[in-house]
Queue: 2 jobs
Job 1
Amino acid sequence: MRRQYLKIKGEHPDAILLFRMGDFYETFDDDAVLAAKELEITLTSRSMGKGLRVPLAGVPANSLDTYLARLIKKGHKVAICEQTSDPATSKGLVDREVVRVVTPGTVIESALLDQKTNNYLAAVSVGSVAEGRVGLAYVDITTGEFLATELALHELPLELERIEAAEVLVPESDDPPPWAGHGNNGAGPNYELTPVEPRIFHPDEARQALLSHYGILTLESFGCEGKDLAVAAAGAIVEYLARTQKAAKLKLANLSIYATGSFMALDSQTRRNLELFAAGRNESKELSLLAALDRTKTPMGGRLLRQWLGQPLLDLTELEQRLDAVDHFYLDGLKRTAAISSLGKVADLERIAGRIVSGTVAPRELIALKDGLAAAPGLRELLDGPNLEWLQGQLLPLSDVCSLIEESIAPDPVGAVGDGNVIRPGFSTEMDELKNASSNARQFIAGLEQRERERTSIKGLKVGYNQVFGYYIEVTKSNIDKVPEDYIRRQTLTNAERYIIPELKEYESLVLNAR
């Protein structure tokens, strides 16, 4: 196991490696010393043979989110190494591999996120000094939102302040980027700066990364023509996500190219004076303008309101569209009350969709998705005012998705996939058979044991199970002469022999698959 650990750790030298061992994630060596300090957990040691003892510190697997949040908030990168083979069927060392590398900009766990704030991973690609231009791209992998732009170098700190990125990727260099030394008001930036190899910012490589991710032949539909710096930044993000998310499948929205001139730029001093997001010397969020205005009923609405406050529109047509929608509900109290009631039943559909794609969704969230989508037709009917066709058209009913969830997911599923009671009985014949096999294992074993005792006249015959050899029929050596020809020897003990028969082998496969 030590060799396996060192190999995996060598692939992630800059991350704290959480190494799955049964019901715990363990850390070793320097990682253990650091984890014990940062998480305030016990530092102990473990024997690795030949007189070698190494530092060890672990956390329960069912409390991962709690400890992960603390490490990420302190600026650490964390590699999560899972057991990828079943210990019950593995002969020898359990297979393990890193399935995700969690960084400030790649967090997907609900417990680590602010519901009403986006969590952006950004990348900056700098052009020549003479041009004085940079490319900026940013993504929220929990919602799929993916944008890119090109702007003047001196505008970059202001734009990074506006999007409030959690992490910014830059080409690796001996010197930190000059623009990263301070914010627009001279204060230090709030984001984590992550140097990566310059190669992934090369326009050709970045373009190919985007083409491969979207499965397309050209970026023409994204409006990227002549924007090599924006493409370089966006491609670097896609490449970085492929490395850090590994087993997770990410579905990003189509890359959207935007211009900073389409909205009013507010520097940090202006934001502070207007108390948009924090107020007073203590920077209280509760006393800010956002807190005073925010009566949104969904996390998605909260994030959108925050964006709107931070980037006021300059385009008159867009402003008129927005005001038409406000007027519609302001002037009709009944519709406003109905909309508030309907939206109160809608969960964070954006982030639930993201967790479905990444394979981390909880069963209860699927029910929340169904309930949220079910509210769409009613909300659509409330948008019957003039000039609201554009908004009405965005509320698609998706009744087929609702029906599929209703038919397939149990009405009150448990906390995690694999714990049982997730798939609705009757939806899948195969699943029902597997459930029955797993829940009726004790009865099957007792019945088989009794039947084989009667068939062989061996009163001491017993059916058992261990993790190495699986299910077996055990016969003492004094009764070996009574063993039928269809018994296949599986293991020899001092005083007994263990056998398998085709029926038991088939049942073993069924039960293990059910687990």
Note: The radius of gyration is 29 Å.
Job 2
Amino acid sequence: MCRIINYGSLNIDKVYTVDAFVRPGETIHARSYELFPGGKGLNQSVAAARAGSTVLHVGCIGSEGDFLLKTLKDAGVQTRLVWRHGPTTGHAVIQVNASGENYIIIHGGSNQAIPDDLRKQALQELQPGDILTLQNEVNGNLAMIEGARSKKARVALNPSPFDASIEELPLDLVSWLFINKLEGAGLTGQHCPEAICRALLARFPGLAVVLTLGDEGSLYWDAHTRIHQKAYEVCVLDTTAAGDTFTGFFLSGLARNLPLQTCLQVASKAAALTVSKKGASVAIPTLEAVEKASLPLREGAG
């Protein structure tokens, strides 16, 4: 089984539960306030580790990030390449409404100040066949993608939060691209899920596109395979870590050489269990919990 090396963000999530999202010029009361460990990188590392993979996290925290380090260790993630660097740990301000939907504002902090020396050590860790996981909450992704190619490692990219810098990355060197519909539209100008996948594969024939569609399920497309996975029916409380859970479990399935359809099914069920609880990393289930869960497929989904 290959390893997952996650070069990713470590955030403190400040979560405000509200009846409805605040509007411009409006001041509202939050129903509750909670503090959680988060960041797309941390969430994906925790998910992949709880799914049964060997995971090494690479990233930085500031002076107040000790509980993020503990969260990784408690999940079984290796943390020897998590450095204390920069004045402020990355953090996010999250509004969660009555439907479980969220608005998120992030401040990069240490995530945007990862030094070259740490990237060099991370690349030295890579072995042929390893999976290098990247998101867009940290600096230095270009160097990591190019370095992974020289080490014959495979790259999984989740271009979130999406911005113009993604267009500058060599996506032809990426093995798996994990996107939602908004990110897919940003990359292709298309809005239909199938058209998004088709446009990306036309530009990058060696790419595998994993497109998450919320309650419509998910798609996997590569040059030879097209799979649609229905979503599972649950009571949604908080969607914050849904995509990260899906990504971590899917990559863990690949690392364990599971069939693609099984990877999609397990990742989808894990994401469904996650959104049925409040919080980000604290809501991510173990593989045992996913395997034991009996969830109905969403009616009319696909």
Note: The first strand starts at residue 4 and ends at 7.
